Amino acid sequence: MAIIICKNCGNEFEGNYCNNCGQKSKTARLDWHYLNDEAKYTFLHLNGGLLFTIAQLFKRPGHAIREFVDGKRVNYYKPVLLLFVLAGFYGLLMHNIDFRKTQEVMNATSVMNEQQIAINELMFKGMEWWISHYSLMEILLLPIYSGITWLAFRGWGYNYVEHIILNVFSASQRLLITIAFFPLTWFYQGTMTGVILANLVAVVIFCVGIWTMIQFFKGKELGMFILRYLLFLFLCITAIVLVIVPGAIYFFATHKELFRH
Nearest to residue 79, comparing CAs of 70, 68, 89? Predict the structure, then answer.
């Protein structure tokens, strides 16, 4: 058998694959046939993995996530990759939303003095930053959020890493819901309908989240699940308070002029 020099690493080998880096021995010149094969692979990969996973996250979310955690993974898109894809897409969509319009509507429907308007301006900037960076925050908060679900549902058969996967899928689910409502969000931006719609999206996300957790922990007594979920909410609120209180103290200390009568 002829000696082949690997085009990737320069290693000399025999056979169909380089024993050093794993590249194929035969690499055809890039042409239309190559692009056709790549397009077919990409479409089949998206259709067979991504679309299937998205459908499962809405048809039977908790069951699907539990099956993935338990080892039934061949048909599912990789959860971390899914989250990054959706986060990137969400970020692109948010560039088309003018948050200033929403603030103007809220200011117009409230009777406020200059001091209150200034405070509202700062609070809105914080909210605007959060919404603009929502996908990034979903990713950064995953370790903390997973720690909370692990503590709240401790002893129910899943370790911390498995809770990370649960929450990666859940974060993707929340992004999908937000993306699904985007056409309406864009159309009604800067109106009271848009403000109401934002609250509706939050309610939908909350309800779907509960449904997902109930399915994921299938077989557990409902009363015990409710107690565990209340503990989960308590831990979430505690974590939020621990983050907000120092921020509020800093805000009041650096903006004393806003609170002087």
Answer: 68
Taking the C-alpha atoms of residue 114 and residue 21, their distance in angstroms, rounded to an integer, is 67
% the chain with pLDDT above 90: 37
36-49 b/e with 16+ CB inside 10 Å = b?
eeeeeeeeeeeeeb
d(CA 76, CA 65): 10
Residue pair 173/61 in contact (Cβ under 8 Å)? The answer is yes
- pLDDT the model gives residue 241: 86
Q: With contact defined as beta carbons under 8 Å apart, do 126 and 255 qualify?
A: no
The residue ranges of every structural domain in the chain are 1-29, 79-259
pLDDT digits (tens, 9 = 90+) for 108-145: 655 555 666 666 666 666 666 666 677 778 788 899 99
Q: Sign of the C-alpha dihedral, residues 209, 210, 216, 217?
A: positive
